[in-house]
């Protein structure tokens, strides 16, 4: 599942590929998307794309004002910009759920498992009403402490709460806690002020580094040109059960929290 850095990578790639393009035609090929009325986008100019939490918003300028196509990629969704309008050879046409024909090329929504969602909205307020964006200036140590409040939830689970911090998922939550040397089992409200500060610094640093390397690809995530992200090689603990901790050499542990795997070093994360 794409997390914040992967969605940011897609949004930046789309922004470069689509800005200034014009919509010539719209095809929705999946019955699950037939509720969407995208006709008003025909003829619209594309003003760019940006990330909103874990979704990508493609911005259209129409005679009736701005419209935003919100895309949640979920498990296997990929947005591909094809300069010639054709599908890459490794992507079977039957998995294309939608296509925007543009004045130059096409935007394809490719999604084998069909869990991805599309929504057309005329403002982004509702889409934004999740938690704080971890890369925004709003996230400071004191804001983090305020968001945590009196929550005794284990930190790893707390970090996954989209109503508190939007966009963190399983991979980055493990990596962030390893980086700031805090145990995933600590009650969130027990963080000292300097630990909260370290957690904020690690969060921003890891997310920014992953964005620089176009995100993490295990199997499905690809950017708009169909390329994989390369942050995988920088992961310290995620998926590394039994391997030595890069900091202290103790074996990395895998633990199940909230039915999902947490990877951590019980020696140097306290
Ligand atoms: Zn360690």
Would you write up a description of this structure?
With 270 residues, the protein is of the alpha+beta class. Helix content is 23%, strand content 23%. A hairpin with a 2-residue loop joins strand 9 and strand 10. The longest helix is centred in the last third of the chain and has 20 residues, at 193-212. The two termini are 28 Å apart. Zinc ion binds next to loops.
What shape does the CA trace take? globular
Mean pLDDT: 92
Strand content: 15-25%
Widest beta sheet: strand line-up: 1-6-7-5
Proportion in helices: 10-25%
Which regions have little confidence, pLDDT < 50, spanning 5+ residues?
none
Distance between the termini: 28 Å
Number of strands: 10
Structural class: alpha+beta
Which value, in Å, is the CA radius of gyration?
20 Å
The major pleated sheet works out as:
4 strands, antiparallel
What small-molecule ligands were found?
zinc ion
- Distinct helical segment count: 6
**Strand/helix succession:** HEEEEEEEEHHHHHEE
Keywords for this structure?
270 residues; alpha+beta; 10 strands; binds zinc ion; 4-stranded antiparallel sheet; 6 helices; 23% strand
What's the short story on this structure?
This protein is of the alpha+beta class.
SSE diagram, text form:
Layout: H1 4-18, E1 23-28, E2 45-52, E3 55-62, E4 65-72, E5 78-82, E6 96-102, E7 106-110, E8 117-121, H2 125-128, H3 141-148, H4 155-159, H5 170-179, H6 193-212, E9 253-257, E10 260-264
Helix pairs in contact: 1-6, 3-6, 5-6
Bound molecules: zinc ion.
Zinc ion binds next to loops.
């Amino acid at each position: 599942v794409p997390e914040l850095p992967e969605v940011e990578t897609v949004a930046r790639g789309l922004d470069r590929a689509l800005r200034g393009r014009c919509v010539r035609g719209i095809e929705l090929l999946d019955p699950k998307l037939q509720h969407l009325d995208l006709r008003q986008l025909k003829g619209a100019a594309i003003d760019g794309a940006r990330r909103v939490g874990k979704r990508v918003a493609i911005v259209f300028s129409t005679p009736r004002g701005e419209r935003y196509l919100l895309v949640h990629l979920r498990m296997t969704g990929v947005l591909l910009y094809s300069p010639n309008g054709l599908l890459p050879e490794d992507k079977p046409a039957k998995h294309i759920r939608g296509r925007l024909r543009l004045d130059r090329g096409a935007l394809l929504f490719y999604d084998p498992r069909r869990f991805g969602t599309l929504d057309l909205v005329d403002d982004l307020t509702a889409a934004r009403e999740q938690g704080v964006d971890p890369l925004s200036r709003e996230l400071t140590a004191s804001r983090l402490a305020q968001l945590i409040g009196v929550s005794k939830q284990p930190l790893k689970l707390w970090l996954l709460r989209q109503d508190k911090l939007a966009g963190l998922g399983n991979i980055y939550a493990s990596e962030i806690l390893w980086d700031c040397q805090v145990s995933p089992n600590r009650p969130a409200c027990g963080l000292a002020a300097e630990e909260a500060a370290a957690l904020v610094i690690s969060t921003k640093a890891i997310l920014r580094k992953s964005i620089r390397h176009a995100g993490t690809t295990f199997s499905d995530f690809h950017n708009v040109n169909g390329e994989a992200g390369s942050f995988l090689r920088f992961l310290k603990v995620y998926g590394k059960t039994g391997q030595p901790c890069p900091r202290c050499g103790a074996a990395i542990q895998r633990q199940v929290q909230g039915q999902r795997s947490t990877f951590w070093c019980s020696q140097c994360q306290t």
